[in-house]
Amino acid sequence: GGYQPRLLWAVLRELSPRLLALGRCNLLLSDGEWLFAHGDNSLHSVTRTCAVETHRLASPELRVELRHEGPQVASVVATVPLTEGEDWRPFARGEIRVFHAGEPVPE
Q1: 17-52 pLDDT, tens digit each
Q2: Rounded Cα–Cα distance for residues 36 and 1 (Å)
Q3: Contact of 97 with 37, CB cutoff 8 Å
Q4: Nearest Cα to Cα of residue 12 among 32, 27, 22
Q5: CB of 31 within 8 A of CB of 69?
């Protein structure tokens, strides 16, 4: 009984080849605490410790401002890198990354 994120991770690893055989499949699955990200053709992630700061986006029309009490770890998953000057890591085809409370979880 109970929620078993490691079991869900194993199920997604097992399903990945089948998903890829059907066509493109970038997939995000979350329960609000855990985020499971399956990459296919174009998925990237970055994890940062946020302070009160502004990040410049690749788009000149948009701006992201992060404000909160004390440092906070956050991970962002997107089809293209959204900010400049950060270490956005592309997913390999079929790669699954898991995040918990904003931080990457090692396999």
Answers
A1: 999 999 999 999 998 889 999 999 889 999 988 765
A2: 20
A3: yes
A4: 27
A5: no
What distances in angstroms separate CA 24 from CA 18, 42, 44, 72, 90, one per listed residue? 11, 10, 15, 33, 16
> Among candidates 87, 101, 32, 28, which has minimal Cα distance to 55?
87
Residues near 50 by beta carbon (within 8 Å), at least 6 away in sequence: 66, 68, 71, 72, 73, 74
Determine contact, residues 96/43, Cβ cutoff 8 Å. Answer: no
Which backbone phi and psi does 102 adopt, to 5 degrees?
A: 90, -10
Amino acid at 11: V
* pTM, to two decimals: 0.78
Q: In whole angstroms, give the CA distance from residue 94 to residue 40.
A: 5
Give the H or E element holding residue 72. strand 72-78
Q: 61 in helix, strand or coil?
A: coil
